[in-house]
Amino acid sequence: MCAHVFVQVAGLLASLMVLVVVVAIGFVFEPLPQTALAAIIMVNLLGMFKQLRDIPYLWRTSKIELSIWVTAFVSSVLLGLDLGLLVSIAFGILTVIYRTQNPRSSVLGHVPDTDLYVSVDQYEEASEEQGIKIFQYGSSLYFANSDHYMSQLKEQTGVSPEQIQSVRRAQKKKIHKSKEKHTLLVCAKAENHSSTSGRQQNGCLPVQECEEVVFLHPVPCAPHSLVLDWSCVAFIDSVAAKAVKQVIKEYTAVDVRVVIAGCSGGLLDELEQLQFFTDVPHTALFPTVHDAVLHCQTFHPPLTFGDPETSV
């Protein structure tokens, strides 16, 4: 009974104390909630302020990540946490799209005494295989970068089907005109044939004074094979697949063999679903770049020292 009365008295005293604080000195504690909230926010922001030390590191390592950091910081301060977070996420997505649209591409060369193929621009020991161009693209292929892939392929390898076709058409026109005019076609470099009768001057056949001489420019030396290294390609969509099939047809029309190497299992499944192999045979696929190069060399063995020089 006494304990029960003591508890009630203690509760009464506590209530009176709270009443006195609220009525008499409540104005003293009026800014306390805001102060406590500010302290909580400052403690949580200490980690964010410490990240300011990452700015010099990001400046040296990745300008894109630095731009994401600055965008998130400024938008959160000016627009608030909710809108700032949305702006930073949208900007981050744009940077991903930019990276996939403009990835690094390079021509690979063979490291002697190994089966490794690395960029010829970064490694001095790497050398290109004779008559074979190996092109590597550092991103997946989809509608946003398919045109960039085709342009980089022709620019990096230096092999343009359109240029080869135009040169061949120009030479055919010259040959056709020369036949109509009964002119003599003389190549810039005439081969020495032991069975040729008559006297030769300066390595060229004798030309009669009444005949017109037409010099043919040789076709640009194009490689016989092109290897597409898809080891960095994670996925491909229908637009990119159609573009690749079209460029393979263009190279095939100018007698340049195109093979694909380094496809992953998931990428092969996507190519099957996109009916990529209706126009491109499965024999054009190889597990590694080295296997593709060996296959191309079996059809066109490299020239060795002492082989006679051929002219177009």
Question: Characteristics of this structure?
Answer:
single chain; 312 residues; alpha/beta; Transcription Regulator spoIIAA; 6-stranded mixed beta sheet; two-stranded parallel ribbon; 8 strands; 50% helix; disordered C terminus; STAS_dom_sf; STAS domain-containing protein; SLC26A/SulP_fam; transmembrane
What would you say this structure looks like, in words?
- The protein is of the alpha/beta class and 312 residues long.
- Among the domains are: 47-101, no CATH class; 105-159 and 222-299, STAS domain (Transcription Regulator spoIIAA, 2-Layer Sandwich), CATH 3.30.750.24.
- Helices cover 50% and strands 11% of the residues.
- The strands form 2 sheets. Strands 2-1-3-6-7-8 form a 6-stranded mixed sheet, with helices on both faces. Strands 4-5 form a two-stranded parallel sheet.
- Helix 3 packs across helix 4.
- The longest helix has 22 residues, at 2-23.
- The protein is elongated and about 120 Å long.
- This is STAS domain-containing protein.
- It is a multi-pass membrane protein.
- Residues 122-296 form the STAS domain.
Short description:
The chain has 312 residues and is an alpha/beta fold.
Map the helices and strands.
Layout: H1 2-23, H2 32-50, H3 54-61, H4 63-79, H5 81-101, E1 105-110, E2 117-119, E3 132-137, H6 146-157, H7 161-181, E4 184-187, E5 213-216, E6 225-229, H8 238-253, E7 257-261, H9 265-273, E8 285-286, H10 289-299
Parallel strand pairs: 3-6, 4-5, 6-7, 7-8
Antiparallel strand pairs: 1-2, 1-3
Helix pairs in contact: 3-4, 4-5
Keywords: Membrane, Transmembrane, Transmembrane helix
Protein name: STAS domain-containing protein
Membrane topology: Multi-pass membrane protein
